[in-house]
Structure formats: C-alpha cells, structure tokens
Amino acid sequence: MTGFDGSDADHDPGDPAGRATDEPVAESRAPADERQPVTFSREGIRAGLLTCLPVAVGVGGYGVAFGMLARRAGLSVAEAALMSATVLAGAAQIVAVELWAEPLPVATIVLTTLAINLRYSLMGAALGPWLERLSPGRSYGSLLLMADENWALTMRDLKSGSGRGAFLLGTGIAMWCFWVASTILGAAAGGVIGDPARYGIDFVLAAVFVALAAELWEGRSTLVPWLVALATAVAAAELVPGRWYILLGGLAAAAVEVILHDR
Amino acid sequence: MIAEGALALDPLVVGVILAMALVTALTKVGGLWVLRRIEVSERLEAGLSVLPGAIVIAILGPELAAGGPAEWGAAGVVLLVMWRTESILLSLCGGVGAVVLFRALV
C-alpha cells in the first residue's frame, strides 16, 4: 500500500500545514507496511483464542438469549444449533427468528440476512491490508469465522503491528464454540429462564460494543468519523427499515474520512 | 430431559438456514475478494481504517437511543470499568450488574 495514486500526489505539495495533524493516522497505518511480515502460526491461533475467551463468554450470554428466542419462534434445538453453527452472525440470526412465521417468509428472511450482514464485507475489507498477504485458503477460511466481536479484537491486534495473521482464526474458533454451545443451552433451557431482561442478558451485546468502542478510540482523530457514524445511524434507524443503519453509518464515516483525508 | 422434537430437522427450515449461511459467507469473504482485485489508494485506506470504530458506533447509537436512563447509566459503568481495568470481562459484568440494578431503581 505504499504506492500513491495520481490524486494523492497532486494534493501533497499544496498542503504542508496538514502534515503535523496527520501524524497519528500515519502511525496507525504503519503496521500495514510491507516491511512488517504477516505470519500464520499456531502461536497466532493460540493468542487469538485466549484473547477472545472473555469476549466469547459475554457473547455466550447473547447466544443463550438467541437460543431462547429461536425456541419460542418454533425452531427445534437442533435447528437453532445448526443456524448458529453455519450462519454465525448474531444480529442477523436474532432478526431472522423474529421474522419466523407460518408459512415461512423465505425470501424476506434471506434478504434481511444479506442486508444485515453486508457490513461484514466492509469489515473484511478493513482486515485486507493484512489478510491479503495470506493464501486465499487461509484468509477466506478465517473470514468465515468472523463476527462483530472477534473482528474488532483482530483489528486491534493487527493494528498494533503484531503481524499475527492467524489471530482471526483463533478468535473465530473461540467465538464459534461459545456461540453454538450457548445457543444449545438457551434453546434447551429456554422455558426455565423466563424473561431475559430480568437478568440483564439483553444488555450483554450493548455492553460488549461499549467496551469495544472504548478500545477502538484513537484520540481526537476518531471524533469526526464517529460523530458522523452516530448521527447517520440514529437517523437511518428511524427512517430505514431493518438493519441498514449499521451499513449506512459505517459508510458515511468512511466517506467523510476519505473526503477530509488531505486536511 | 430433552424435550420431544428437540432434535427435529424440518427440510424447509434446514434449507432456509443454509441459504442464510450462504449469503452470510458471501458477505464475509466478499470484501477481501473485491479488495484483492483493485488497487487501494492511501486515501481509501484511511477511509477503511475508520470503519472499525464507526461500525461499532453505528450499532451502538440506535440501540442506546432506544434504551433509557438505566441503559445509559450502565453503558457509562462499562466505559468507566474499561477505562480503569482494560478488562472486557470485568466491564461486561459491571455493565450487566448495573443495568439490573438501575432497572430496579428507575
């Protein structure tokens, strides 16, 4: 990613004052440089797995909630477990079982799943500077186990310059195990637990994201894109049906960052 | 122990689940697939670098906006514990405990 395209070369000489404020951004990009090798080792898998364990436990609370919702929607324990094992996308699964009805609205469910999960393309692309230096089998295979939480952990690790290309796979394995196990637990024991709100289980996901936001904060350069994402997402959640607001918020922030890049 | 029908697999349901799995897998690998085929400028890379936090904020914003004082207070507790301890697990426990407490109080 060291090559300049035409537009960047044109803008650089005209903007000497902008250099100083650009420094944190340049720093965060440095690990993507060619000099930093990206490995794919057993140690990387181990590090990812261990780092993700506490997060996976938190996700487990969410999985229990999903299992209960799925059972209430009429899915069997085996069907709920199959969905968690093959789809591995919390928000989309929860929305899907909310849409579950007799007769099954197949097209609505599949299209909504696609819409909610389109953000994974952006997230996968964000991992690109590191993953594109791994073989297709390793990079695409790891990406199949990507979910919101372990993606954020992986971004943090790779941005720090660890070069552990297998980190995503390790976190993904932890996520998958806890997600499937907690789904089975929730689906099997759903009737006994009752209302998930009584134990704060419904707040687990929000808490996970607040914690991740605290980790992803990079100082003042983060403020503008985050405010754009927040305003766009809150407005879109009101105006647009479904979960498009996640995608729109992320895209708006990225667009503003691209436009303001030279300043 | 296991309820009757717990292991049932309806062919239509399995089909829908596998279709969901297929489109999800395509979104997960799609971003990198496209990225491998185009030249990424430094400018676009800067845009991609803000995506992590921006998407987290975009998920959180409407969720917290839909909540109330109990959820906002608990989110504050998560931030506080995270800032003090940098432990996700402690933050989660603090947040969930706080939300249960605040809901009882409010």
TrEMBL record, chain A:
GO cellular component terms listed in the entry, alphabetical order: plasma membrane
UniProt KW keywords: Cell membrane, Membrane, Transmembrane, Transmembrane helix, Transport
Protein location: Cell membrane
UniProt-listed GO biological process terms: L-valine transmembrane transport
Entry keyword annotation includes Nuclease: no
Coiled-coil ranges (or none): none
Membrane topology: Multi-pass membrane protein
Residue ranges, annotated region (Disordered): 1-37
Residue ranges of the TM segments: 47-69, 81-101, 107-131, 165-190, 196-214, 221-237, 243-260
Principal location class: membrane
UniProt xrefs under InterPro entries: Brnchd-chn_aa_trnsp_permease (IPR011606)
Entry keyword Cytoplasm: no
Signal peptide: none
Domain of life: Archaea
Database matches in PANTHER family: INNER MEMBRANE PROTEIN YGAZ
Family of the protein in this entry: Belongs to the AzlC family.
The protein, known as: AzlC family ABC transporter permease
Organism: Natrinema versiforme
Automatic annotation (TrEMBL), chain B:
Protein name: AzlD domain-containing protein
Chain ranges passing through the membrane: 12-35, 47-67, 87-105
Keywords, comma-separated and alphabetical: Membrane, Transmembrane, Transmembrane helix
The organism of origin for this protein: Natrinema versiforme
Domain of life from the UniProt record: Archaea
